[in-house]
Records
---
Amino acid sequence: MSEKLRLSKLMTIKGICSRREADFCIQNGWVIVDGSVVDTLGAKVQDNVIVELSLDGKAYIDQKISVILHKPIGYVSSQPEKDYSAASELLLPENRYSRFEDGKSLSRSDLSSLAPVGRLDIESKGLLILSQDGRLTKSIIGPASAVEKEYLVRVEGDITDEALDLLHKGLYLDGQPLKPVKIMEIEENLLKMVLIEGRKRQIRRMCELVKLQVTGLKRVRIGSLMLADLPEGQWRLISHDEKLKFLK
């Protein structure tokens, strides 16, 4: 016998949308379960049902905005801290990277509703995704996510084979083992590290455990999204095709 779940929860598990988006779609009669519309909030269904969105529901989810921001040092990725600004404050029409002319006009109110996907600490710079799309957020930072995050890490200290081996696999943080990290020294004192998790200040804390001090940290890739030549402090829209690569 399959388990009964709230329809909104099942929709998030299936990666259709976030819980809030699911409730909105249910209220509007845009959710179809095994061929029938379900428009009752809190409705429970078997976990093996087929859940689909109507054309209106798909249009609502697909119009959700997601952007890449090149976050500078000195900005926090989420809630503002004393004397510091949130990275989202850089999402202004005048900071849009003009090289990407996608024809979609965005207002300040559109941009103010975007939330950071994951963290990038105040001392770090590079690629930060901000989004209205719960599906994208879950695919990148959800508990089952295996999306790679690539960093360039400048360090001081002796980069030994033992240190690289431990950074790759063998360290614990907060009493829990870390997932394996791809790591290589690409030039003197510069490491490339590729993670599939994102614990708080993970790279800095890992390096401290092997007697290395991080002096510079830049995220250059999340999944198939590259920072590339996006200037510091500027942003661009994530295209529909780019988003689909995360949602497959």
---
Amino acid sequence: MGREVGSRIREIRKSQNITLKTISQATGLSESYLSQVERGTCAASVSSLKKIAKVLKTDMDVFLTQEVDLRTSSWESKYVCPAGAPYYYRVLSNMEDGKRIFCRQVTIMPRGEQELFPLKQRGFLYVLSGYLEMLLNGVADQLFPGDSLYHDETMELKVWNDSPYLVNCLYVTYRQDDNEEEVCGKK
């Protein structure tokens, strides 16, 4: 687990163009220690992770939730973090027994003004926490906790997280083809 946490810290740090020296100066942790944490040769304490998360303007849970097994009575759901994507998600529903609704819990990383969360299928987005910027048919707006937005293929819709906080939302789509399952805009 230490290696996964360290690689996630390094990925976020590099995506924000922050050096180990900058984190060291802001947290009081040595560059050597931070390097060891990133390489997975040393496990970080909870207090160290909190300090690092504060400098990276993110929540500590981002470091800890990648590829976690979650079991239900009949199937498994893992957090998935697509390479280079500004979000991670886990599937909340399965497609067994002809189910037509596909639900994912999505966490969108902070400061992703250039990185859009893909909404490729007819469905809706429901914001659980944080807020999203959006552009709907050329009109800018925001979605706050408790807001939902229906969308379909005829709409020109873009959403992203420009805040310093994680955004958690439900992304629900309707199954369009019995042989096709699309996850977060990617087949």
